[in-house]
């Protein structure tokens, strides 16, 4: 009887452990393994203007492929498009999750018309950049600093702005929390999350079949991501980063965003210690401000930058 009980306990333990491991792997796969953007019908952009911007970058006659090495020896890619006239002004435009640099063509077109050179990086794991996990801004902030240094090395007189969307926005804010060269003059954060842990919890609740309680799911995700990707999701904390920032920052969000809570934008704004401005785009969903109300969107950005004499 004792032997049978031991076998039963071992069977139960194996089943429980196997279930936990399988669930943890599932969480890691859906949250942290990069998926590449394609032009397939089932992966269409949310607005035709984004697709037009994508084509604008892809087919631009002056576009250049640039490559640098990250501090952990990954090869990182960016497209660089110079403006028509010689300029010391640069915009580093940072894309969101499940996409690549081409999605930011709509922003690049505007900046180029303003006489601003554009660098569009592929974040690690996306586009032509190496990497097998999503950093959510944690490692990416260091990659953006490498791109900043790349520009300054080529042009010591460079004046640089950072403009990020969604995960790229969080990356922007995480970057401003670091000690940056004086060449970085401003940051624009469109639809950032305040903390990755909160965003994971919000997103997990929307999954069908999210039967595991949120605290347990977050714990398992935290452990698995730390073991496999090497960072702690609790340290992906833009709201703490902005407390250390001295970079003038424009915080933007759409009030109809159901993917990232718009209230996170106001919390980030309140926490920031840097010179700052705030803009809520009415009627816009997640990163939709640029297409739902482009006049107001760009007027706010242009005004913000002109006040900084950029």
Write up what this structure looks like.
It is a single chain. The chain is α/β, with parallel strands linked by helices and 310 residues long. The chain has one domain: Rossmann fold. Helices cover 43% and strands 16% of the residues. It contains 11 helices and 8 strands. It has an 8-stranded mixed β-sheet, with helices on both faces. The termini are far apart. This is Hydrolase alpha/beta fold family. Keywords: Hydrolase, Membrane, Transmembrane, Transmembrane helix. One of its GO terms (molecular function) is hydrolase activity.
Keywords:
single chain; 310 residues; alpha/beta; Rossmann fold; eight-stranded mixed sheet; 11 helices; 8 strands
Number of DSSP-assigned strands: 8
Total tally of structural domains: 1
Radius of gyration: 21 Å
Q: Alpha-carbon distance between the termini?
A: 80 Å
> How much strand content do the residues show?
15-25%
The strand line-up of the biggest sheet is 1-2-4-3-5-6-7-8
CATH superfamily: Alpha/Beta hydrolase fold, catalytic domain
Keywords: Hydrolase, Membrane, Transmembrane, Transmembrane helix
Protein name: Hydrolase alpha/beta fold family
InterPro entries: AB_hydrolase_1, AB_hydrolase_fold, DNA-binding_regulatory
GO molecular function: hydrolase activity
SSE arrangement:
Layout (H helix, E strand, L loop, with lengths): L1 H31 L15 H11 L5 E6 L5 E7 L7 E6 L10 H9 L3 E5 L18 H15 L4 E7 L1 H10 L7 E7 L5 H10 L8 H16 L8 H4 L7 E6 L8 H9 L4 E6 L7 H4 L1 H14 L3
Parallel strand pairs: 3-4, 3-5, 5-6, 6-7, 7-8
Antiparallel strand pairs: 1-2, 2-4
Helix pairs in contact: 1-7, 2-3, 4-5, 6-7
């Amino acid at each position: 009887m004792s032997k049978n009980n031991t076998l039963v306990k071992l069977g139960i333990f194996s089943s429980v452990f196997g279930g936990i491991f399988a669930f943890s792997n599932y969480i890691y796969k859906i949250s942290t393994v990069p998926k590449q953007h394609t032009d397939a019908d089932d992966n269409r952009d949310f607005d035709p203007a984004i697709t037009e911007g994508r084509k604008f970058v892809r087919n631009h006659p002056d576009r250049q492929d640039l490559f640098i090495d990250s501090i952990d020896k990954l090869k990182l890619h960016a497209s660089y498009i110079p403006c028509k006239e010689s300029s010391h002004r640069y915009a580093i435009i940072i894309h969101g999750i499940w996409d690549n640099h081409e999605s930011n063509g709509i922003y690049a077109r505007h900046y180029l018309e303003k006489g601003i050179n554009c660098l569009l990086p592929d974040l690690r794991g996306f586009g032509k950049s190496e990497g097998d996990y999503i950093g959510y801004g944690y490692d990416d902030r260091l990659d953006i600093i490498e791109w900043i240094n790349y520009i300054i090395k080529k042009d010591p007189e460079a004046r640089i702005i950072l403009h990020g969307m969604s995960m790229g926005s969080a990356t922007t804010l995480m970057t401003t929390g670091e000690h940056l060269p004086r060449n970085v003059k401003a940051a624009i954060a469109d639809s950032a999350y305040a903390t990755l842990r909160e965003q994971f919890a919000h997103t997990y609740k929307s999954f069908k079949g999210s039967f595991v309680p949120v605290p347990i799911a977050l714990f398992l995700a935290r452990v698995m991501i730390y073991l496999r990707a090497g960072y702690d999701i609790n340290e992906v904390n833009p709201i703490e980063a902005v407390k250390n920032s001295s970079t003038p920052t424009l915080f933007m969000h759409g009030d109809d965003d159901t993917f990232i809570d718009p209230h996170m934008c106001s919390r980030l704004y309140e926490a920031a210690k840097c010179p700052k401005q705030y803009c809520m785009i009415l009627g816009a969903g997640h990163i939709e401000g640029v297409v739902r109300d482009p006049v107001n969107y760009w007027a706010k950005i242009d005004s913000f930058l002109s006040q900084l004499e950029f």
